Amino acid sequence: MSAGSGPSRTPDPDPGGPVPARRPVIGITTYVAPASFRGWTDVRTAVLPHSYVAMVRAAGGHAVLLPSDDAGTAVLAALDGIVFAGGEDVDPARYGQPAGPHVDCVPERDAGELALLAGALAVDLPVLGVCRGMQLLVIGYGGGLHQHLPDVLGHHRHRPAPGTYGRHGVRFAPGSAVAALMAGSAEVNTYHHQGVADPGGLRATGWADDGLIEAVEDPDRRFVLGVQWHPETDGDVRPFAALVRAAGGGAGGSRPAAGYLPDPAG
Predict the structure, then answer these.
(1) Which of 170, 166, 145 is nearest to 156 (CA)?
(2) pLDDT digits over 50-77, tens only?
């Protein structure tokens, strides 16, 4: 898998804390995996680490989970922003390559999420891509990936062991949105075996200490950002807060929330 799905290493925000009456609705993509609960085992389930939800809420948004769906993009009308989350590899067929021996992909997830991405871009919906989500952005913008980083870089530091995050240095392009967003950060976590080879129509704005692309953005849109690391597992709300601000919430929001759910206590 190109993205980790481990639990957050930081506590969730206090569920009893104050919540604005209106919060931008932020969709988060999910993936399908067997799960066990309440006596049932190996149930095919749409799943997502709760750390994503916690970060969206901490940023002032209202999280809505989006399972893979091929029924169109009408759901986007109810959203103010969207997060493309981590998970399986993107099918190399999407960037014109046969799949190598290390690829683990779910083509139906690719199809549903690429349709959502195209629809989101068509209406300039704010977009954040995390790990696999950043790679999906690159494919949506006509770019391509390295299928297995150890074959290219000669090391396994971007995914040091199953279920174990690594860390590495990172630098950002001066003047970029991600440089301002991540000011003061010189290191990020890592858990992926694929990586960006060609950013396509996106601008590469962050790099690991081995030169691998770590951040991409589209400066011509309201907010399109991809990060290769997992801010949600570090409790780093900054990328999610930037998304929520672009969606119209929090300090500096560009517009009122258009699609929102009223808070029951509001």
Answers:
(1) 166
(2) 999 999 999 999 999 999 876 678 999 9
d(CA 10, CA 115) in angstroms, rounded, equals 33
Please indicate whether residue 105 is annotated as part of the active site.
Answer: no
Most confident range, picked from 36-50, 69-83, 148-162: 148-162
pLDDT tens for 98-154 read: 999 999 999 999 999 999 999 999 999 999 999 999 999 999 999 999 999 999 999
The owner of tokens 């074959």 is 151
Which listed residue (146, 158, 192, 230) is catalytic?
230
Looking at per-residue pLDDT, the higher value among 187 and 259 belongs to: 187
Q: Check 131, 146, 193, 217 and give the catalytic one.
A: 131
The least confident of 2-6, 72-76, 191-195 is 2-6
Instruction: Report DSSP letters for the chain, one per residue.
Output: --S--PPPSSPPPPTTS---SS-BEEEEE-EEEEEEETTEEEEEEEE--HHHHHHHHHTT-EEEEE----S-SGGGGG-SEEEE---SBPPGGGGT----TT--B-HHHHHHHHHHHHHHHHTT--EEEETHHHHHHHHHTT-EEES-HHHHHS--TTS-BTTB-EEEEEEE-TTSHHHHHTTT--EEEE--S-EEEE-TTSEEEEEETTS-EEEEE-TTSS-EEEESS-GGGGT--HHHHHHHHHTT-STT-SS--SSB---TT-
CB 203 within 8 A of CB 193: no
Catalytic residue among 88, 113, 217, 232: 232
CA 230 to chain centre: 8
